[in-house]
Amino acid sequence: MPQRVSIFVTCIVDQLFPNAGMAMATVLERLGFSIDFPEAQTCCGQPAFNSGYRDEARTVASHTLKVLEGADYVVVPSGSCTSMMSHHYEELFAPGDARHHAAERLSPKIYEFSRFLTEVAQVEDVGARLETVATYHDSCHALRELKIKEAPRRLLANVKGLDLREMDAAEECCGFGGTFSVKFPGVSGGMARTKIDSILRTGASTVISIDSSCLMQLQGAISRAGLPIRTMHLAEVLASR
Fold it and tell me: Which fold has domain 4-119?
């Protein structure tokens, strides 16, 4: 009997990049997992949490804990949302609070997509094919809070036809940072341009990441510069045949 996987799709994927969420479901189903999409899910609460609105974040987190209660696994196409739910939910509730215990129970069940594939599904080759020269961008939350670095690269190394080239600024922030890009647009834009210069030096025509928010930031800078480079979520690459 296939294991059941609950997908937490994230706000940005839901509203702006639905193809990334559908691609993730496609890959998981191809691997034999049974997909569950809890329709009552909303934001994970990270924007409120990062902006200092702890009461509002607590309200959203409480709802999410109820929605995902009983899940076997929760797979997320985002390092930042995964980090919020697995690392910070417990901070929102006092020890002894039932919601604190619920957060403790949920935390080990939450996986960013690439980590789920390599650690739970234990696969590195999903049969994908994509003819392109690509480079990979490390998103900040995934790299620094979740310590995800090699899993996406191992998965991409097994994509037939893909020439993966490392950029010299792979680990530098793209400048999005959620509300940071709104509050400090000049700094944010400068960081994006630095990143784009690094991408150009690789000769890549495709930029891949596990966070759609980073890809949105990068695609904006790429489009404004009129460059022939596209952005793709890792899930979209792995779903390619």
Answer: Rossmann fold (3.40.50)
Fold matches, 4-119 and 125-239: yes
As given in the structure block, the two tokens for residue 50 are 């990062």
Q: Around Cβ 15, how many Cβ atoms within 10 Å?
A: 10
**Dist CA 206 CA 14 (whole Å):** 22
Given this structure, which CATH class describes domain 125-239? Answer: alpha beta
What's the pLDDT tens digit per position in 73-120?
Answer: 999 999 999 999 999 999 999 999 999 999 999 999 999 999 999 999
Residue 162's DSSP bridge partners are 132
pTM of the model: 0.93
Task: State the DSSP code for 120.
Answer: I
Give the domain ranges of the chain: 4-119, 125-239
Where are the extended beta strands (E) located within 142-241? 160-164, 206-209, 230-233
